[in-house]
């Protein structure tokens, strides 16, 4: 799932789209947690350059 999530954001997709992917795959509660974990990992790894609205 992480590869698909990275593909989404690589083409300037939104984190909301990543959340939908995760929830579609894992269900609502587990998908939200997984998306949040990915975001935390990406921030920790230095992959997130900025957050825009």
Mean pLDDT: 95
In angstroms, what separates the terminal alpha carbons?
Answer: 24 Å
| Helical content class | over 70%
**What is the total domain count?**
1
Instruction: Work out the helix count.
Output: 3
Compute the number of strand runs.
0
Shape: globular
The H/E string reads HHH
Question: How much of the residues is beta strand, in percent?
Answer: under 5%
| Oligomer category | single chain
Rg, alpha carbons: 10 Å
Q: Would you identify the regions where 5 or more consecutive residues have pLDDT less than 50?
A: none
Structural class call reads mainly alpha
Largest sheet, strands/sense/barrel: none
Provide a descriptive summary of the structure in words.
The protein is mainly α. The protein has one domain. Helices cover 72% and strands 0% of the residues. It has helices at residues 2-10, 15-26, 28-44. The longest helix has 17 residues, at 28-44. The model has no long low-confidence stretch (mean pLDDT 95).
Features:
single chain, 53 residues, mainly alpha, 3 helices, 72% helix
Helices, strands, pairings?
Layout: H1 2-10, H2 15-26, H3 28-44
């Amino acid at each position: 799932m992480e590869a698909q999530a990275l593909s989404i954001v690589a083409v300037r997709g939104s984190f909301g789209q990543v959340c939908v992917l995760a929830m579609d795959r894992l269900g609502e509660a587990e998908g939200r947690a997984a998306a949040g974990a990915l975001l935390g990992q990406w921030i920790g790894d230095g992959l997130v350059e900025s957050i825009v609205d």
